Amino acid sequence: MKGHSSVAARRHSKVGSLFDTRHSMRIWSEGNSGSASESGLGNRGVRLLSRPRHTLECGFKCLEIMMLALKLTLVPLFLLVVSMSGKWWGPSVAGWLAGLPVVAGPILYLLTLSHGPAFGARAANLSLAAILASEAFNFAYAWTCRSRSWPIALIAGLVVWFLSACGLSLLPTSPFWASIDAVTAVCCGQSFLPRTSAVTAGAPLSRFDLLGRMTAGALLTLSVTSVSAWVGPTWSGLLAVFPLLGIILSVSSHRAYGPAFVISLLRGIVLVRSSFAAFCLVLTFALPFQRPIVAFLEAALLAMIVQWCTRRIAARQERASVVVAAE
User: Fold this and answer.
1) Is the pTM of this model over 0.85?
2) How far apart are CA 280 and CA 241, in angstroms?
3) Spatial distance between the Cα atoms of 131 and 270, rounded to a whole number of angstroms
4) What pLDDT was estimated at residue 59?
5) How many helices (H) does the chain have, and how many strands (E)?
6) CA–CA separation, 57 and 110 (whole Å)
């Protein structure tokens, strides 16, 4: 009988300790450390309960630091690699990498990591439609810079971009309508931008220009990802395609080479719109069903293929125009 009573006592003590543990975890999850001492755990129990909370807080802080590091370095790193690819690996590799969305792509990836695939897919859909707003900026700047200085042309371009973005935010957010907007933008950019005979050979990229691009890309990334929870996926996708690099290139080229060079530059930007449209379209359909890293790799691969095809078509058209001019 004494053996049975001791076994029962040990079982009772184990059950009691298990109940105390579960009860302690419940107290910790409710965040009521004061009730821990009231429930009989004492100071030792409070110390035990504070350890998991401290561990979670450290984990959250580490994640926040990692996300901040990605926001500050991901876009500048892409800009560095793409800008220097021609010097490092030759023009063929540079032509392939030119189809990558070096600013909007990383921003969309960070938005997906922060808010989930559904948020990222909708933001990518709006980024596809935002090609129209970017081309609206180019259109306004190109026509204004022919007779006005760069500050007036910049203001005109920004006003037109903002009005276009506001209009896009009110339209249906389906991939069909976003594709229509993108196709309309590319067709209008090719047909209605001013024509010029200037050649955009330009000077080689200086360290100051490269540093300016990298800094601007980091600031845009940090701004969009910081306000994304407040503005939602619609404006996050629109702001991801804000023509920041277009502004830098247009203003610097306008001041250094004049309006004819700027117009030729903006006409050349239209050629990379098709690869970006393919990138966003793949993300719109793939993110809800695939892991983000897989969806972004597929989108990047298709963007480079489309960029290669676009370059081939443009080269053939240029050769054909030269032959016709020679005849």
Assistant:
1) no
2) 11
3) 10
4) 60
5) 14, 0
6) 22
